[in-house]
Amino acid sequence: MSKISAISTGEQSVTTTGAITGSLDTSALTGAYTVKIRVRGLTSAQNIQIALEDTANASAFSDALQPWSVTFAGVAEPEGATQSVRDYQIPACRFGATNTKLRVNAQVVTGSPTALVQAWLEQ
């Protein structure tokens, strides 16, 4: 895997639930890929659940599906923690067609964190 494409717009500061800034156009995506999400800045009492969302609608994400989600709990290490998912683990993702995109969405935020979140796709 050598090509890296940003899903989030760099590392985003997340304090509440909702879409995290940025999206990736996947209309031309073919072949194998890995989606990665890194979270930094949580203390032991803080958690964040992040969902990967896709869309295939001209009105972006009005038809959002969530093929994968992951929970990060108490990531105190400076480098944070990274979770990944391979293409064969999320076969329901809609790629390679007009208007298809990916984004990440904070679903649950507990313990008043300021989580630093970054998401990308490697191909």
SS-based class: mainly beta
The profile of the biggest β sheet is: 5 strands, antiparallel
Described by the principal axes of the CA atoms, the overall outline is globular
Helix proportion = under 10%
- The chain-level mean pLDDT equals 92
Query: Low-confidence parts lasting 5 or more residues at pLDDT below 50?
Result: none
Whole-number total of structural domains? 1
**What is the CATH domain class?**
Mainly Beta
Radius of gyration: 14 Å
Task: Tell me the series of helices and strands, N- to C-terminal.
Answer: EEEEEEEEEE
CATH topology group: Jelly Rolls
Please tally the β strands and state the result.
10
CATH architecture field: Sandwich
Rounded to the nearest angstrom, the distance between the terminal CA atoms is 5 Å
Strand content: over 45%
Number of helices: 0
Structure description:
The chain has 123 residues and is an all-beta fold. The chain has one domain (4-122): Jelly Rolls, CATH 2.60.120.1110. Helix content is 0%, strand content 48%. The protein has strands spanning 4-6, 12-14, 18-19, 24-25, 34-40, 47-55, 65-73, 81-86, 101-110, 115-122. Strands 1, 2, 5, 8 and 10 form a five-stranded antiparallel beta sheet that branches. It is globular and about 40 Å long. The N and C termini lie close together (5 Å).
Short summary of the structure?
With 123 residues, this protein is mainly beta. Helix content is 0%, strand content 48%. The mean pLDDT is 92.
